[in-house]
Amino acid sequence: IIDDLLTNEVTPIVTLYHFDLPQALEDQGGWLSEAIIESFDKYAQFCFSTFGDRVKLWITINEANVLSMMAYDLGIFPPGVPHCGTGGYQAAHNLIKAHARSWHSYNSLFRKEQKGMVSISLFATWLEPADPNSVSDQEAAKRAITFHLDFFAKPIFIDGDYPEVVKSQIASMSQKQGYLSSRLPEFTEEEKKMIKGTADFFAVQYYTTRLIKYQENKKGELGILQDVEIEFFPDPSWKNVDWIYVVPWGVRKLLKYIKDTYNNPVIYITENGFPQSDPAPLDDTHRWEYFRQTFQELLKGTI
């Protein structure tokens, strides 16, 4: 596939891991176990060694922020092992460290000869306050973006550690729930140094936007959404197919946020699109209108 792409002048961007962990590794604890960091690094080195002469753009882990929450907190995605309020954070901790280890392996062992770049892809729905005049909704939307995107991006792109609002919010909620310490694991100082700066470009996957409303966790329920204290929903006026609502201005706001927050990095939109119901009609007006409006937003002078 790689050779055929290059023959046809298509630049391959290869993702090492996309939600498909071998069962043998899952039986050892999967992403909840620190042992997976070493396994992932060895696998990454094998791929760099085998394909790196032709592949110059690498994604270590696809949508690590979605995987950690959907697979290990809610248990909706495979392997479907819900640990509400704890599993998502533990998986995220190991995903970040595995990514960083493999980036360093590329940097020290392969970069000089292969001259490629390595990053991690993050899913990002743009999150807008439901009531733009409500301070609580504005703060909830900012907090939601921090948990959703910055949770992974800040350690990797900025300073090796989680955002302060994430740490304080989870610690406060954990204390109210009777935990002796925060449910969010901590990075050691050595790990922070290892994680910081381990991405050569910003890979983001955008499809849609949601409105955010503040919702206090009065009952002290466990879960990532409960820690953020929000509810989210689409504007009923937005057109949609399934969960994807057409909100082209969302991608412009998202890219501006990344540009401003992460020191104007090189950004690749590594996933984007619009579904069609089966059977797909030949006159796929919704799809081409989605792309037309999306490109218009991308081409606006000020992102």
From TrEMBL:
PANTHER family assigned to the protein according to its UniProt record, in alphabetical order: CYTOSOLIC BETA-GLUCOSIDASE (PTHR10353:SF291), GLYCOSYL HYDROLASE (PTHR10353)
UniProt family annotation: Belongs to the glycosyl hydrolase 1 family.
SUPFAM superfamilies (UniProt xref): (Trans)glycosidases
Pfam families per UniProt: Glyco_hydro_1
Name of the molecule in the record: Cytosolic beta-glucosidase
